[in-house]
Every structure is written in structure tokens, then in C-alpha cells.
Amino acid sequence: MTAPKLGVLILVALGVFTLGACTKPNPGVCCTTLEDCRSVGLPTTATCAVGLACDDHACVAASCAVDTDCPTATPFCDAQICRACDETRGCTSATPRCELVDFTCQGCVGEADCAGYPAAPHCGATGACVTCVDSSQCGGASPVCDGACRACRLDSECPSDVCDFETGACVAESAVMYVAPTGSVSATTCTRQAPCELRRVLSLATGIAQLTIRALPGTYTFDGDIFFVDPSEVRLHGAGATFSRGAGSLFFDVDGAAGGVKLHVYDLVFDRAVIAANNAGELSLVRVSAGGDPTTSFITAASGSKTSMFDSHVANTTIQMQDVSTLTVEGSLLTGTIGTYSIGANITVRNSVIVSPLAGSTQHEFMSAVGNGGNLTFESSTLFNTYVARGLLSNSILYSPGIGLPSVMASSVATASYSLVNPQAGAFNGGNNLKNVDPMFVNAATGELHLLAGSPAIDAANPTSTNTIDHDGVARPQNGRNDMGAFEHTP
Known about the structure:
By secondary structure, the protein is mostly beta strands. About 5% of the residues lie in helices and about 35% in strands. The strands form nine sheets. The protein has an eleven-stranded parallel β-sheet with strand order 11-12-15-18-21-24-27-30-33-36-38. It starts with 5 loop residues before the first helix and ends in a 40-residue tail after the last strand.
């Protein structure tokens, strides 16, 4: 047997010595858990001597015993070291996770990081804890997830394709009757998968307090009249739908004689249709477009009926109100060679725009017959190439350079207050007005009626005006005082 060489024996001895040296604890190195120790190559836990604390695997002088020993920047005493955060304290829902290596607040990586935030229990895409990450986590009057749960604003935001715009909740599909251009005329149920024709829905829904109808997208051609007399309240949702007149008439009659019928219409397009409200019936139009026939009236109202129009566009037709009926127009646009006529009715136009393109000598005329007790009021509105035969202008602009008349207001029976009127040869009632001055629109020729910087209408409305929003939804005032007209100038 050959004797081992001397060099091999020396290497073996050195190896044994080296292994023995690695197992000797290093008093300056520490770790807290077995997993933590293994991460730095230690086989078991290693603590620090009395008076020292473990900070990033190094034994350092302890800085605290309780939170009150710590400065403001690092207010939490954790294992005798002052930290900016610990496992349960110091972070917010924007950066909810305390990184226990450098003790800084970081974004969430999972739902568990948001468990301490009941108002924002879900981990969002940006690393912040949020109320929701999808609409399945919302409900009730706040069914839509938009970083936080909010009310629905569009029908398309709801599974049923119907939003209750009054409450902000989504309407259950089982509570909706659906119609389509080629819907059934004989079915006894009108579902989204098997919709009915509109008249069929109305015939099936008699005797109920409220009916919700969803007109599915498409063009509906009607010949003949449609009467809304029962149920007492109908909500007609029509995003993507057009109701068009065929060879005959298209007349929607909202008649309150049977107990005060209310018809609410949302997001529908009317083509050459007529809507009549009578006998204390109530008609509400929201985000509706209508027009197409200047020879007929889109709205006729009488006998104590109430009509309101919000965020809508009516073109190339007329509106006729009479017999103590009321019309409220808010945030809407009236265009074309149209007129609005009142005989003993009360009409209020607010934050709206009325424009006539002047076909020949015609213009949009607002007229209220004398001696019938009606009122016609314009508040914070812009009227371009329009004539006001009677009424009150307040905080508005009436600018009609192209209608070929020396005055755009009837001098003896019209009143203006804090308004710009041009042209106006004769005197009229009221005060604090701007007469025969240019309002300085961005481009009146193209219908861009926002105000340019330097317009005399800026900051010229009544300083006590309580109007807080303009036609576009911009907050009023922008500079301490409201502007005249429908549009608030933004610097």
C-alpha cells in the first residue's frame, strides 16, 4: 500500500479546519427566522447581544424600547429599531405594503396586502388598494367600477342594458320589456332574446304602476299614432335606436286624462315625429335628438302638461306650448329655422344654445302671445340669429347680426337683465346690459359660440347668480363671477 503524499494530508487538514471555522457564530451577523437566516447562509437563528438590535442582518445599537422613543420620520419601534413602517402600521391604501428589508411602503401585490383597508379591500393595477377592480364587486346604487364604485351613467354600463338614471342603479333584466324593429306582435313576454313590437308591449303592460322599456338598437319605422295612457309611468330607453315616421303619421300622445301619465325618454332619436303632452301629462326628454321636418312641430303641449328637455338637440322643427303648460329646456341645443311659440304657457330656457342658420329671411323666433298669462325666460343662454318677441333675458347673449332686423327684442314687451343684446335700435326694459357690442365668439360662422379671451361678456353676469354649471358642464364661475351666455370662458 502506497503511503499518502504530504501535500494531500495538508489539504485535508486545511479543509477540516475551514469547515470548523464556518460553524463558529459571527457576533456581528444576525437573523430572526429560519427562512431569514438561510437567505444569508446561516444554518440557524442568530441573535444579538444585550443592548444591540438586528437591523438588516447586522447587530447595531438598539434605538428604542417603545414608539415614543422614536422620531417623527421613523415613528414605530419594531424589534428595538425605529422604522417608518412595520407589518401593520405606517402605510396607506395608496402604498399598503411595508417592505421589511428597507422598511418602506410599497404597492400591493395581492389582495392580502389590502386586508387592513375595509373601504378599499382590492389590489388595483397601480399597486394601490381600491374599492373595486371590476363591476362584479359593486352593486346597488353604485353598480359600476371606475376605480371606485359609482352610479351608472349609461345604459351600456349595465348587464341589462338599462340604467335607472334617477337612482344610479342598474335595472334587472327581468324588470325590463324589450322591443325591436321586427319584434313580435303576439308574444306574451318581451325579453331581450325575444323582443316585441312597441305597441305590443304597451298592450301587455296595462294596469301596472311603472313600465321600463328598452328599445334595442336599430331603425323603427312607424305608420300611425302611439298612445301612452297606461301604465301611469313609462321609462323608454333608446340608445342606438331611431324612431322614424313612415308613409303615415308618427304621433306619440302622452295623455294624463287617465291619471297623470308620465313618459321619460332617454337617448332616443326621433325622425319627423310629433310628441304631444295633454291633460296634465308629463314628458321628460333626456339626451334626445329630434327633427327633420320643418312643417310639423316636434312637441305640442297643452292643458296643464309639463315638458322638460335636458342635454338634447332639436333641429328644423317647432315647439308649441299653450294653455298653462310648462316647458323647461336645460343644457340643450336648438338649431335650424325653427320657432318656439307660447300661448299662455311658461317656458324656461337655461344653459342652452339656440342657433338659426338663416335660410332666406327666416330665424328662430321665440314668441309669447299677449294677454294669456304665460312667461318666457332665458337664463345663461346664447341665442344666435334669433328673435325674441316677448320674454325675459337674464345673464344671456342675444346676438343676431344676420336676420336683417334693426332690433332683436320687441322693445315694449321684452326685458333684459345683465345680458348682451345686438342689434337693438330701440329701448327695452331692464338694466345692466351690454347693447350693440360684439360678444366675440370663437367663430360664429361655424357655430362655435364659446367666448374668446377679452370678450365683454366674460365676468359680466349678475354677481348674485346661483348658476353653478354651463352648457358643457364646466363649473361656474371660472374667475370670481359668472359669464353671460351658455358657455363659461376657461382661461
